[in-house]
Amino acid sequence: MKPIHWKIEATDGKARAGTIVTRRSVIETPVFMPVGTQGAVKGIRFEWLEDELDARIILGNTYHLFLRPGVDIINRFGGLHKFTSWNRAMLTDSGGFQVFSLTDLRKLNEDGVEFRSHLDGSKKILSPEVSMEIQAALGSEIVMVFDECPPGDAGYDATKTSLELTARWAARSKARFNDVQSASFSLSPASEEQAEACTLNGKQALFGIIQGAGHLDLRRESLDRTVEIGFDGYAIGGLSVGEEKVVMYEVLDQIAHQMPNDAPRYLMGVGTPEDLVEAVNAGVDIFDCVIPTRNGRTGSAFTSRGKVNIRNAKFSTDTGPLDPNCECSVCKRYSLGYLRHLNNAGEMTAATLISHHNVAFFLSTMRKAREAILESRFPAFRKDFLSGLHENNAEGV
What we know:
- The chain is of the alpha/beta class.
- The protein folds into two domains: 29-185 and 196-289, TIM Barrel (Alpha-Beta Barrel); 298-395, no CATH class.
- 43% of the residues lie in helices and 18% in strands.
- The protein has helices at 46-52, 62-67, 71-76, 80-84, 96-100, 128-138, 156-181, 192-197, 216-229, 245-255, 273-282, 291-296, 329-333, 336-344, 348-374, 378-389, 391-395; strands spanning 5-12, 15-21, 26-29, 31-33, 57-61, 89-93, 106-108, 113-116, 123-126, 142-144, 205-210, 233-236, 265-267, 286-288, 300-303, 306-309.
- The strands form four sheets. It has an eight-stranded parallel sheet with strand order 4-14-13-12-11-10-6-5. It has a three-stranded antiparallel sheet with strand order 1-2-3. The chain has a three-stranded antiparallel sheet with strand order 7-8-9.
- Helix 10 (245-255) runs parallel beside helix 11 (273-282) and helix 11 packs parallel to helix 15.
């Protein structure tokens, strides 16, 4: 028995439409995961995510939840799902990216990383083994191996050294993961229908991470070494971390379709709507990024006509919606003029409403991409979608 079941339903070029069945969700891909770093998607209630937006999976972060509220407290609630009341699938990042962003507060060695908490300065340790133990306690459906994420401009030798460490840590992650998973889980399927859809053993899935920065030969080496270890899914890490966008697209074009066909492919921490569609075109299935809510908090909205700056004075008397092509509740009810007023008045409602729309737009974009793949018209969808994104740029909004 497998912890997740993956099925490809259709392909169109390199683009794939598939289904991932977990204990709590049937996830249709391509899919965008809203980021719930600290057990919450900023500004958006879980009722909205489940009932209106129909998000099947969100992301939680090991580093942040490890520091606050701590594993002991989450354990008292019976895991992250019960603690947060999120009823659907969850993927947890290993904490590696956050730790390695603390350049001045960490010490790295073969065993793992010793670092100072950004909250209170206390000394903490994360390692492949500790990360697996924390993620097991959190109870996510998908667990990520502990890896090192070099900066996008890292030199060849530094990237190779990092890659080799990531490979060793991946093997250690899997070994400890297997030990932890030998304990029985008491989770129940979300519904009888889902239980019938797939027989699962209640354990978690483990995804490996491919590194190598912008060096294609190192990416291929990392891919080979990661596949050799063997995982339930595979992720591309270390992109959108400072490199030029053309480099990211080249890595995706050369590497994504070489990842195992019989497992989900995940692009970590990327990116804009354009990035997502281009990555789908390269063969990626799963995405996450903080951009929708981060931009929403600053008055920036993603639309089918490109990015909209809500602070633009031209919107002060605009009675139309953020996006006339969007079916979300924000676009159905609120005008651009009103949203601009809320933002300029410093009302927190502005951040909530714009973030809600942005997440809806990202989720909808992936559903439309999936539909296009299923109907063998993805190239036309991609062309029209990318063309539409440049409309606002030409208008200067």
